[in-house]
From TrEMBL:
Protein name: TolC family protein
Organism: Mucilaginibacter rubeus
Major localization class: membrane
Domain of life the protein comes from: Bacteria
Lineage of producing organism: Bacteria, Pseudomonadati, Bacteroidota, Sphingobacteriia, Sphingobacteriales
SUPFAM superfamilies reported for this sequence: Outer membrane efflux proteins (OEP)
Record flagged with keyword Nucleotide-binding: no
Homology family: Belongs to the outer membrane factor (OMF) (TC 1.B.17) family.
Length: 463
């Protein structure tokens, strides 16, 4: 017991003692986490997809049932603090031996002048009881109250779990939606380049007929065109898979995924700020859930420690009791009583200690999980803040690169027509433009995804 008494549970305040006070030295407490989904996302079609998923997604519906299970468990543990009351209807018979205390006593009683005929004790002796029986464990050491506290914390944790599924689902749908817009944009770019390359192929074929180009040049242009056409069908498959994944998340088998036409024209979500880390602790469902689980484990430790001490149980009863059925409801058959008992563990103390040590180990796991969720959240916020800034800069430079490549392609076409550039320069310029356009769409997608991930990282997406 001495070793058990010395353990002091770790609290959430101790875990967060070294948490930085700001993100990137920004003290502004305005946080995007406070924005509801409909205000954060500027695209109403995306909001409609999220609303549909919140009503039909199997993972979210399962999380809601886990909340109901935790609510029932809370009611169960709260009921332990109250006495149980049962309606009891008992009937039995017992034959006492002639050489037993009850047998001899009952025999002598029947000859007494102090009893009437209804009080004569038959042999065998029937026994009838109808009334209420109760049992109440007096919570001397706080075991039952701590079990209730643990159940309440886990109920709150289940609500955080539901919110966690909601934020993850919101981020997943938004990510797929913007990825789908990027694929649509890439498909449009590829189709445009196919037309340009088909036109270039026709020109080189005509030049071959005029003796100004070789069969090698024709084959090179055809290979370039085939490569681009292959990219078209790869992109179409990516679009199909993304659409099907969105249907899965929204709980549907088919139907058109209504969306914007291009990621280049779509309005970015509203990012007003990240707030401070202490706000993240309250807003992020995974961190809040981990803290509540730690609270529950601390209560479990106190409850497990109380198992070392004696238990006081009271068992009152009230009703009618008689050895004759016809006299059961006679007023003289009314009876009541109360029994009290104290039990203390002796031979099972090793089992109780093992359970106590297991609870301590699980509490330490809860501490580490809480630490991990805080570290992960802090890292995610910083990564996505940096991502928004860096991807925006990369987008600006990629636009400049694309402009220069388009100018180079135009110059290469002019020089090729007058015989001052070869076909390889045209092919290289076309491929560079295509790659730059696709990369530009990809960077734009990454800006959107960083915004969505930041919204999730600071604890938004469940309001």
């Amino acid at each position: 017991m001495a070793g058990c008494k010395s353990y002091k549970p770790v609290t959430g305040q101790e875990v967060t003692a070294n948490l930085p006070s700001t993100f990137n030295n920004n003290t502004d407490t305005a946080t995007v986490a406070s924005l509801p989904i409909g205000q954060f996302f500027a695209d109403q079609r995306l909001v409609n997809l999220i609303d549909t998923a919140l009503k039909a997604n199997p993972d979210l519906l399962s999380a809601l049932q886990r909340v109901e299970a935790a609510r029932a468990n809370l009611r169960f543990n709260a009921s332990k603090l109250l006495p149980t009351i049962n309606l009891a209807a008992n009937a039995g018979v017992e034959k006492y031996g002639d050489y037993t205390q009850n047998g001899v006593g009952n025999y002598d009683t029947n000859f007494s002048n102090n009893i009437n005929s209804d009080q004569h004790i038959p042999n065998p002796v029937p026994n009838y009881f109808l009334g209420f029986q109760s049992s109440w464990e007096v919570d001397l050491w706080g075991k039952l109250n701590n079990q209730k506290k643990a159940a309440f914390a886990r109920f709150l944790a289940s609500q955080s779990g539901y919110r966690l599924v909601t934020t993850a689902l919101t981020a997943q749908i938004a990510g797929l939606y913007y990825q789908l817009l990027a694929y649509d944009t890439e498909l449009g770019i590829i189709k445009k380049n196919i037309k340009l390359q088909e036109h270039a192929l026709e020109i080189v074929k005509i030049q071959k007929l005029g003796g100004r180009a070789t069969e090698l040049a024709v084959q090179q242009f055809e290979a370039q065109l085939s490569r681009t056409k292959g990219m078209e069908y790869t992109t179409r498959q990516q679009i199909t898979e993304s659409e099907n994944q969105l249907r899965f998340l929204t709980g549907s088998y088919s139907g058109k995924v209504t969306r914007d036409t291009s990621i280049m024209k779509t309005k970015l979500p509203v990012v007003i700020g990240t707030g401070v880390p202490s706000q993240m602790l309250l807003n992020r469902p995974d961190i809040r859930g981990a803290e509540l689980e730690l609270t529950a484990m601390n209560a479990d430790i106190k409850a497990a420690r109380a198992n070392f001490f004696p238990t006081l149980t009271l068992t009152p009863y009230v009703g009618y009791n008689s050895f004759r059925a016809n006299l059961l409801f006679d007023p003289a058959s009314f009876t009541y009583g109360i029994l009290g008992g104290i039990t203390a563990p002796i031979f099972n103390r090793k089992a109780i200690k093992a359970e106590y040590e297991r609870t301590i180990a699980e509490q330490k796991i809860a501490v580490y999980n809480y630490q991990k969720s805080i570290l992960s959240g802090f890292q995610e916020v910083n990564n996505n803040l940096s991502g928004i800034e860096n991807f925006n800069r990369a987008f600006e430079f990629k636009q400049q690169e694309l402009q220069a490549l388009n100018n180079a392609l135009s110059v290469a076409n002019d020089l090729y027509l007058v015989g001052r550039a070869n076909y390889l320069e045209i092919i290289t310029a076309q491929r560079s433009v295509l790659d730059a356009e696709l990369e530009l769409a990809g960077i734009k997608r990454d800006i959107f995804l960083s915004s969505v991930n930041l919204y999730q990282a600071v604890g938004g997406g469940w309001r």
